[in-house]
Specification:
The protein has 274 residues and is an alpha+beta fold. It has helices at 12-65, 114-119, 135-139; strands at residues 73-76, 80-85, 88-93, 105-111, 127-130, 145-147, 153-155, 158-170, 180-184, 188-193, 196-201, 217-221, 236-239, 247-257, 260-270. A hairpin with a 3-residue loop joins strand 1 (73-76) and strand 2 (80-85).
């Protein structure tokens, strides 16, 4: 005679019930994980847009704030929009420059400031500008911009003065009302094209603004400005200086990635003391 067994098991109904409950819980957990992942991806994309936008806007704002007065110009079409300016390396006040009817000279003296005496590094493409009152004075073949021949040197008779040596004997068009001279680098351009912002430099001075530059450095992507749209939607707009205010630049960048939109709208004032 076989003794009755004391072992117990699950019935088919119990197993089916457990499987159904586990399925429902799994669906809920999967939905929660999916929602959390989507939120994380959205946050990462928005942070990427903000980082790119802040970088290019901050960089551009700093460079524009140090632009030579009356050196800003903007141009473009429905496929590209550019702003161009000339960076100031340092400025100082001169004592005397050769101006007609004086004889041409290849040097003149300026006050030795901290920026000019300690922080400035000479390069062969640097120039000195006196009294630029228009864009043509900066980019054209005028007698207001002359190339430097060498690094500034201390005046042996007065260590508070610097001697700026020009490439050749030169004659400036006019004196500056404030006796100010600017030592400048070659022009810089920021261009918006193909949904990106590029920075160009080292291409030299051109009387007409060139928007077909090559070798630019990528500064930001995912730009959605309508380059062929209304004037107020352009990435760069320049308000010229008047007798009562400085010039200023209005910049507008729209960054968009997977329906995430970030807009940067800035106004940069340009000192107007030629």
């Amino acid at each position: 005679m076989i003794a009755p067994s004391n072992q117990k098991g699950f019935t088919l109904i119990e197993l089916v019930t457990v499987l159904v409950v586990l399925g429902v819980v799994s669906v809920g957990i999967a939905g929660f994980i999916r929602t959390g992942t989507e939120i994380y991806v959205d946050v990462v994309e928005r942070d990427q847009l903000l980082s790119e936008g802040r970088f290019v806007v901050e960089r551009l704002n700093r460079e524009l704030s140090n632009a030579l007065p009356n050196s800003l110009r903007a141009s473009g079409n429905s496929s590209i929009q550019c702003i161009e300016f000339v960076p100031v390396l340092f400025s100082s006040f001169y004592f005397d420059i050769p101006v007609s009817p004086e004889d041409p000279a290849d040097s003149f003296k300026v006050i030795d400031t901290t920026a000019s005496g300690s922080n400035y590094l000479y390069s062969a493409n640097h120039s000195v500008v006196v009294y630029p009152t228009s864009v043509n004075d900066v980019y054209g073949s005028t007698n207001k911009r002359f190339a430097l021949d060498s690094a500034p040197s201390l005046d042996p008779d007065d260590n508070k003065k610097l001697i700026l040596t020009l490439l050749s004997d030169s004659l400036f068009a006019a004196d500056s009302p404030s006796s100010r001279a600017y030592v400048i680098d070659t022009p810089v351009s920021y261009c918006v094209t193909a949904r990106a912002v590029y920075r160009y430099t080292g291409y030299g001075f051109n009387s007409t603004q060139n928007t077909s530059l090559s070798g630019g450095v990528l500064m930001a992507e995912n730009v959605q400005n309508d380059l062929g749209g209304e004037e107020q939607d352009k990435p760069f707009r320049i308000a010229e200086a008047t007798l009562t205010r400085n010039a200023f630049v209005l910049t507008l960048f729209r960054f968009e990635l997977n329906d995430e939109l970030v807009v940067f709208n800035n106004e940069v004032h340009i000192p107007n003391a030629p």
